[in-house]
Design a protein that fits this description.
- It contains 5 helices and 12 strands.
- By secondary structure, it is an alpha+beta fold.
- It has a single domain (3-257), classed as Ribosomal Protein S5, domain 2 (2-Layer Sandwich), CATH 3.30.230.70.
- Strands 1, 2, 3, 4, 5 and 6 form a 6-stranded mixed beta sheet that branches.
- Strand 11 (211-217) and strand 12 (222-228) form a beta hairpin.
- Helix 2 crosses helix 3 (145-158).
- The model has no long low-confidence stretch (mean pLDDT 95).
Length: 261
């Protein structure tokens, strides 16, 4: 991180000591969120999500495949995330970074724990199924990639059509119907800076955060959690964040379900 980013991070921390966020948001408020679906012409499903200046694109591709040996009666879900070099000066080309692997795993965990996708419905016949590939691309990093990526993946899954299956092949010009999504899962990511618990940190707040917690919910219960960074949360703080996450669910669900038109 450059000198300017370091100074902005320190300034954000000084403001938080006075109970003020740099962009004047409430401690538990999201930045403006925009969702657009159907943004990739040749994908089975796609969505772009902007949270403030953070921009993430998710694309879905379905391939005829074999079921996993331990789940012979259902289809597969494969999640991938790429931090594109154009998104931040800190991102580089090459093999997946630990940050991109963590991002994919956190998004995958929330969707699986829902469970959001009805994987048994993706079985085509004995020994044949659909594998749902979800590719998340970070186009611009300005903080909170976890929630932006989760929303983009979830919105893209809602946009997904299943190709027609004929004689062992996928006929992509024709659809056999929409992908069955049983449950919408939304995530909220909090950071701790001093004694402050912040929802939807921007990149300057993230640069000085002591710890981070992503909570995925279905509106009635917590489905998954993932902690990051080296600091710690108290039990009381985790309870508080879980409560806020459940409260935010309807707002986020409505945004995820929106078409962006």
């Amino acid at each position: 991180m450059g000198v300017l980013e370091t100074l902005r991070g320190n300034y954000a921390k000084e403001l938080l000591d006075k109970g003020i966020r740099e962009d004047m948001r409430g401690m538990h408020d999201f930045r403006k969120i925009d969702v657009k679906r159907g943004v990739i012409e040749h994908a089975e499903g796609s969505a772009q999500v902007d949270i403030g200046n953070t921009r993430v694109l998710a694309g879905i591709k379905l391939m005829v495949d074999e079921p996993m040996p331990d789940t012979p009666d259902q289809g597969n879900l494969v999640m991938n995330a790429e931090l594109l070099p154009m998104a931040s000066a800190d991102y580089e080309t090459g093999p997946p970074s630990p940050e991109s692997i963590e991002l994919a795993r956190v998004v995958d965990r929330g969707i699986r724990a829902g469970p959001s996708i009805d994987l048994p419905s993706l079985l085509i016949e004995e020994g044949k199924c659909w594998t749902v590939f979800v590719d998340v691309y970070v186009l611009n990093y300005a903080g909170n990639l976890f929630d932006a990526s989760q929303m983009a993946a979830m919105a893209a899954l809602l946009d997904t059509k299943i190709p027609k299956y004929e004689d062992g092949n996928a006929i992509r010009e024709e659809s056999s119907g929409k992908l069955k999504v049983d449950k919408i899962v939304a995530s909220t990511t909090f950071g701790k800076i001093g004694s402050a618990l912040l929802l939807d940190m921007n990149k300057y707040e993230e640069s000085v955060a002591e710890c981070r917690l992503t909570i995925a919910t279905d509106g009635s219960s917590v489905r998954a959690m993932q902690k990051g960074l080296s600091g710690s949360f108290s039990v009381r703080e985790v309870d508080e964040m879980a409560g806020i996450s459940l409260e935010k669910y309807k707002e986020l669900k409505d945004i995820i379900e929106s078409t962006g038109e």
